[in-house]
Write a structure and sequence with these properties.
By secondary structure, the protein is mainly alpha-helical. It has one domain (3-94): Arc Repressor Mutant, subunit A (Orthogonal Bundle). Helices cover 53% and strands 11% of the residues. The protein contains 5 helices and 2 strands, in the order H-H-H-H-E-E-H. A two-stranded antiparallel ribbon has the order 1-2. Strand 1 (62-67) and strand 2 (70-75) form a beta hairpin. It starts with a helix and ends in a 20-residue tail after the last helix. The relative contact order is 0.17.
Length: 108
């Protein structure tokens, strides 16, 4: 991940609703969620949710898959892990560090 990609991802997450949406998709795991389920879970208007999902997708943090008449949104774990790696890449600058490696999601 380069600096521009990190800024884009962090910018997308720098909004309360988008952060809530992304976290809900992370919790949902590889099955993902439809916009209607997300809207009900988060108690957010569907047109507002659509805008936030578009921003997250543009930043590469979520993927979209058409399944019949439904869209399924999923957290993009590789991108999330890449962002975490970018943020912790030079952790402690060769000093003693409590973190031996960046935490990554390996379950998905």
């Amino acid at each position: 991940m380069n600096e521009d990609q990190a800024v884009s991802a962090l910018g997308a997450l720098a909004h309360t609703q988008r952060l809530r949406v992304f976290r809900a998709l992370v919790v949902a795991g590889p099955d993902g969620l439809t916009p209607s389920v997300l809207a009900d879970q988060l108690d957010v208007a569907r047109n507002t949710l659509s805008f936030h999902l578009k921003e997250l997708a543009h930043a590469g943090l979520v993927t979209i898959e058409q399944q019949g008449r439904n869209l399924i949104y999923r957290a993009e774990y590789a991108r999330m892990n890449s962002l975490l790696g970018y943020l912790t890449q030079h952790c402690c600058q060769d000093g003693v560090c409590e973190v031996s490696s960046p935490q990554t999601c390996t379950t998905c």
